[in-house]
Amino acid sequence: MKKKKTAKTSHERKRFYLRHMVPVVVWLGTVACVVGLFHQRAQRFEIVGIARGEVRQVAMSSTGRIRSISVALYQPVTVGQKLAVVDTILDNEQTLEAELDSELGVVMAEIEHLAAQLIPTRELMHAETQNLEIGRAGDLGRLSIDVDNYRVRLLQLQGQIAADQITLADLEADRKILEELLKEDVIAPYELEKVKTQCASLSRKIEEDSHLLEQAKVDMVKAGERLEQFRKQHVVEPSVEQALDVIRKEMGVQEELMKGLLERRKALKSREAVEVTSPIDGIIIPIRVQENDVPFQRPGEQVMRRVGEVVRAGDSILAVAQKEPTEIVAYATEEQLGSLKEGTGVELVKARTPAQIAKSRVVSVGPTMELMPERLWRIPDVPQWGRPILIDIPPGLSLVPGEAVGIRVLL
Fold first, then answer.
1. Among 95, 126, 276, 409, fewest CB within 10 Å belongs to which?
2. Could you give the C-alpha distances from 216 to 154, 179, 210, in angstroms and in order?
3. Can you name the CATH fold of 47-53+323-409?
C-alpha cells in the first residue's frame, strides 16, 4: 500500500513538472532566439554607411543671363554635352557693340580718305614720269601705287564684310522672331519669306566679298613681289616715294586699328552665347542651395534654373551626378574607432532586393569627429558624431547613390 502511494506521488510530481516546466523552457528558448536574432542583427549592422557618387555643380565664372537650357531634370548626359547657353554681356555693356561699330566706321572713313589721297599722288607720279628722261622711275612709282591700291582694296573689303556681318546678324535675329510670330499666326508668311530672302542675299554677298578678299590678298602679294624685283634693278626717285611713305604709314596704323576692332567685336560676340557643358557622364539633379535660403523658397524653387534668370559668378546653374556611386561613406563612433583603420576588411550588406553581400576594405579614415547626416542618427532628435571612413565599392555590388548599406567589420 505504501509503495503504491509513493509511485502515485512520483507520477503526480512528474506531471506537475511537465505541466509547468515545459512552458518555461519554451519561453526561455523563445527569449534566447530573440536575443540571438537581435545579436545577429546588431552584429550584421555594426555600422550603416551611405553610397556616394561624384556630384558636380555646374556654374559660370562670370555673371550672365541664361538664354537656353538644353536638358531636363533627371536626364542622362555625357561629358562635353551642351547643357545651357548663357549671355555674359551685362546690362552696362550693351552699348559696347555700338561703340565698336562706330569706331569701325571711323577707320573705314579714314581708309577712304587715304584712298582719295592716292589719286593726286598718282597724277603727280604720271606728271613726273613724263618729265623724266628715264621712264623706269615712272614704272617704279606705278608698281608702288599698285601695291597701295591692293592694300586699300583689302581694307575696304574687310570693312564691308564686317559691316555686312553685323547686318546679317540683325536679320537672323529678326528671322527667328518672325518664325515664332508665324507659329502664333500673328504675321503673314510673306513677311518671313522677305527676311529670309534678305538673309540669303546678304550671305551670298558676304561669300562673294570673302572670295574677292582672298584674291586681293594674292594680288597684293604678287604686286609686292614685282615691286621688290624692280627695286633691285633700278634706283627709286625719292620725290614721290616720300609722299607715298606717309600714306603707307597711315595705312599701317589703320590696319592695326581695324584688326584690333574686329578682334574685340569677335570676342564680344562670343560672350553673347557661352555654352555650358557637362563635366562628367551622369544625370541632371536638383541644384544645391544655400542653407540660409531654404526657409524663403517656395516649393519647387531652385530645383533648376530657368531661361531668363540672371546667375552670379559661381552660382550653380545645373548639377550633374554620377549614375553609379564610387564609394561608401560611414561614421564610426568612439567605441568603434579601435577596430577600424586603413585596410581593415569589412562586409557590405545591401538590404534592397535583390539582397547582396560583398567584401571590401577601408580606404581612409577621417582625422576628426564630424556630425553625422541626420538619417544616420539612432535617435532622430539627438545629433550624433562620428569619425568618417571611406570604403571601396567592390565590383558586382549594385548600389544607387544615397542608398544605405550595412557594414560589419571582419575579424
1. 95
2. 6, 38, 10
3. Elongation Factor Tu (Ef-tu); domain 3 (2.40.30)
